[in-house]
Design goal:
With 93 residues, the chain is an alpha+beta fold. The protein has 3 helices and 4 strands. It binds magnesium ion.
Length: 93
């Protein structure tokens, strides 16, 4: 599963759960790939199985975490179990 295939899977799952899925990734600012908005907000960086986040991505993820946000990296191995569970937890009522 490539990062693009993971992105497509996450988008479809979010839509099915009525979660807003905003693709926001920026290699310049390191902003995470996705902001997912439901009963809570998740910031998620998507990576393929082997890739590592860049230093600027790690800085941005850390800053968001320190500011109190729910931040994580999702990889193909997290699909569907972990990812679907985290999405389901913020599904609008
Ligand atoms: Mg990415």
């Amino acid at each position: 599963m490539t990062e693009l295939e993971l992105l497509q899977a996450v988008r479809a799952a979010a839509k099915s759960l009525r979660i807003r899925c905003c693709y926001t990734g920026s290699p310049v600012t390191g902003f995470p790939d996705l902001v997912l908005i439901g009963r809570a907000v998740l910031f998620r960086e998507l990576e393929n199985g082997a890739s590592e986040v860049t230093s600027v991505q790690l800085e941005c993820l850390t800053e968001l975490h320190v500011a109190g946000h729910d931040v994580a990296i999702w990889r193909p191995a997290d699909w569907p179990g972990r990812i679907f569970a985290e999405l389901d937890a913020i599904r609008p009522l």
